[in-house]
Design brief:
Structural class: mainly alpha
Shape: elongated
Largest sheet: 3 strands, antiparallel
Strand order of the largest sheet: 1-7-2
Helix content: 40-55%
Length: 273
């Protein structure tokens, strides 16, 4: 008697994806929504989160393929406070370039070998445009390259930029990433130089300009957003949502000779593609 009140289309679609919702929430949602309707509040909340059933079906289908590619057979339950807004954002996303990022995030959420995702990942991803996503991919690719390589001291002393800071060429995206806590400007050391005149008149006269020697106070200040570093949160977020960034960053010729650090080969991107 209650089934007609929910709408036939929603019921049929929910039955189609019911098994997936069961895995996602850890309960027999397909029975709750499609047949028994025993918990109307919970079922209504799940249904209300689904903006477009076709996009939901595509999201779950592609996520399943990513899990199979990683060899994941047993998934973990995603808390409703994360799963519901994730489904809502993903099924209302109108920029096709961002659909893959939502699939990556859901894959990371279900993968028990990955670090559990935070609710803020959903809200941050929900604020990105396709243009922002492309800028973040390029930034993350450069960050990974330098973070995974040991830069010799003789190179650090030259005028080459290395892993302490990376460039970003989109001012609007840079401001957004900074506001969302994904990046921070790198710290620049400012050193005070003290004036010192020679005490012998043979070297200096009173009209000669002073020269400066080291020994003053040193202060760390933040630079601007032209050179930035990923925060710990930013790196974890990119790891969960960005996926494969191979070929997005072309290092300078001198850097191509650097070998990856074996102890820094962290698991990046969880194998999502």
């Amino acid at each position: 008697q209650e089934l007609p009140k929910t709408g036939g289309k929603a019921i049929d679609a929910t039955r189609d994806v019911g098994g997936w919702l069961d895995r996602l929430f850890g309960e027999a949602i397909e029975h709750t929504v499609g047949r028994l309707w025993t918990d109307r509040t919970r079922a209504s909340r799940v249904e209300a989160a689904i903006y477009d059933y076709e996009r939901l079906s595509t999201l779950l289908h592609n996520t399943e393929k990513k899990l199979q590619k990683k060899g994941i057979k047993t998934t973990r339950v995603v808390p409703p406070k994360i799963a519901l807004p994730l489904i809502e954002h993903a099924t209302m996303e109108h920029e096709s370039e961002l659909h893959e990022l939502w699939e990556n995030l859901l894959t990371s959420a279900l993968d028990p070998s990955e670090e559990e995702i935070k609710r803020t990942y959903v809200s941050v991803l929900g604020e990105l445009s396709a243009k922002d996503a492309q800028a973040l991919k390029r930034l993350y690719a450069e960050w990974l390259y330098w973070d995974e390589r040991e830069v010799p001291d003789y190179i650090r002393n030259k005028e080459h930029r290395y892993s302490s800071g990376i460039g970003i060429d989109n001012d609007e995206s840079a401001v957004l990433f900074y506001r969302l806590g994904l990046i921070l400007p790198v710290h620049v050391t400012v050193e005070e130089y003290r004036s010192q005149r020679a005490v012998t008149q043979n070297n200096w006269s009173k009209d000669d300009p002073p020269y400066y020697v080291e020994g003053g106070d040193k202060t760390l200040v933040l630079g601007d957003l032209s050179v930035v570093g990923l925060t710990d949160f930013g790196e974890k977020f990119c790891n969960a949502v960005i996926g494969d960034v191979s070929g997005l960053y072309e290092p300078p010729d001198w850097a191509k000779k650097l070998e990856p650090r074996i102890d820094k080969k962290k698991k990046r991107g969880g194998g999502v593609a």
